[in-house]
Amino acid sequence: MKLYFIYSNKMSCFYCLASREKDFNRVDEKDRESLGASGFSFHELSLATKGFKEENLIGEGGFGKVYKGYLSSGQVVAIKQLNLDGQQGSNEFVTEVIMLSLFDHPNLVKLFGYCTDGDQRLLVYEYMPMCSLEYHLFDPEKKALSWKIRMKIAVGAARGLEYLQCRAYPPVIYRDLKSANILLDHDFNPKLSDFGLAKLGPIGDKTHVSTRVMGTYGYCAPEYAMSGKLTLKSDIYSFGVVLLELITGHKALDFNRKSGQQNLVAWFRPYFNERRKYSKMVDPRLEGNYPLRSLHHAIAITAMCLQEDANRRPLVSDIVIALEYIASKSNSHCNTCQQPQPETDIN
Ligand SMILES: Nc1ncnc2c1ncn2[C@@H]1O[C@H](COP(=O)(O)OP(=O)(O)OP(=O)(O)O)[C@@H](O)[C@H]1O
Ligand SMILES: [Mg+2]
Asked: Which part of the chain is the Protein kinase domain (predicted)?
């Protein structure tokens, strides 16, 4: 039986492509045509980045270096160049091309194309001018994100996840949801990126798919880390970690903090049932500028997403509705806001 991956008006035989994911060169011309993204030559991308000049370098992750580039059409793009040392990256490259070619949603980053000249593997994305959520949330040099912006980012990221879980068939398990993979446009609209680890979720009577444990420590659901059994609820847990980062302004994992505060979830879990301490959990950089009721609701959703029992974590569609409500209430002026809090026993 062939399974078709259906998104808006795009339909492709996903498994036909995915089964050839080990080697992109084995994906034939017909298959390539069914991918939405176009092929670029290495020469074109070299011209776009002035020969991959240092001044065009935006950042670097596990996959390789990312450059800002200008296509001959004038389009500004981000070009990710696979580090040729690792085999793993090559598999992720194909998964990324296939997945992103089929997705179409304002909260998922767009892939314009790819390059497979010789050994070279490059990905060409829409350029996201405000970098990643991680960059804004944890860099003390950056202006603190307001509560309103934080909730806007939470809603958009949840909508992106809802698309993957509810609009796709088979549904997609992202596996790499983290603040570094939430990119921001000039208006702080978030877009999920990096689908190289994504997996097709269970269908029919199946409750999970079994995989090698991948992802980023600190964001990984405990049951997945222990058993390798992956479900849609694994991503809900990671989403809860991102929510907790947005609320507290602390990283999921930070070995520079004292022991007991290095793992964000372990640190804050005891406070989820203590409403009177909620305002002490908040990022001090907000200086008390948030509606208290919104904060209570946001922490309640976070606590539900982070439940140890995966079955008790909420559905992504319910998370979207709840966050949309919070965001709508976060526009009001902060006459109900907390005054700045002194450093407390929590922080
Ligand atoms: N489309 C894009 N537009 C603008 N900047 C981008 C884009 N894609 C990635 N970047 C930036 O490039 C840097 C590296 O991103 P990359 O996705 O390669 O690594 P990462 O997600 O930070 O870490 P890793 O992939 O190793 O887990 C990040 O700082 C990110 O903000
Ligand atoms: Mg990334």
From this structure: 52-326
- Give the residue-averaged pLDDT of 180-194: 97
DSSP structure class, residue 312: G
Nearest to 304, CA basis, from 247, 245, 243, 251: 243
Q: Which two tokens stand for residue 327?
A: 């965001």
Atom 24, ligand 1: residue with shortest CA distance: 61
Distance 12 CA to ligand 1 centre (A): 27
Helix axes 316-329, 147-162, angle to 10 degrees: 160
- Give the range among 59-68, 129-138, 300-309, 329-338 with minimum mean pLDDT: 329-338
Query: Any residues with CB less than 8 A from the CB of 144 and at least 6 apart, and which?
Result: 249, 283, 285, 286, 287
Domains of the chain with CATH codes = 2-126 (3.30.200.20), 133-331 (1.10.510.10)
Give CA separation, 309 vs 177, 239, 263, 274, 293, in Å. 19, 15, 19, 20, 26
Nearest CA to 239 out of 289, 189, 188, 307 is that of 307
Ligand that lies nearest to the alpha carbon of residue 219, given by its number in the listed order? 1
3-state secondary structure of 87: helix
Query: Taking the CB of residue 299, how many other CB atoms lie within 10 A of it?
Result: 23
The model's pTM is 0.88
- Give the pLDDT confidence score for residue 198 in this predicted structure: 85
Q: What are phi and psi of 244, to 5 degrees?
A: -65, -35
Q: Is the CB of residue 66 below 6 angstroms from any atom belonging to ligand 1?
A: yes
103 burial type by CB count under 10 A (0-12 exposed, 13-18 middle, 19+ buried):
buried
Residue 106 is which amino acid? P
How far, in Å, CA of 328 to CA of 208, rounded?
Answer: 35
Residue 296 near residue 277 (C-beta atoms within 8 A): no
DSSP 237-305: HHHHHHHHHHHH---SB-TTSPTTSSBHHHHHGGGTT-GGGHHHHS-GGGTT-SBHHHHHHHHHHHHHH
Answer whether 199's CB lies under 8 Å from 209's CB.
yes
Residues near ion ligand 2 (CB < 5 Å) are: 61, 181, 194
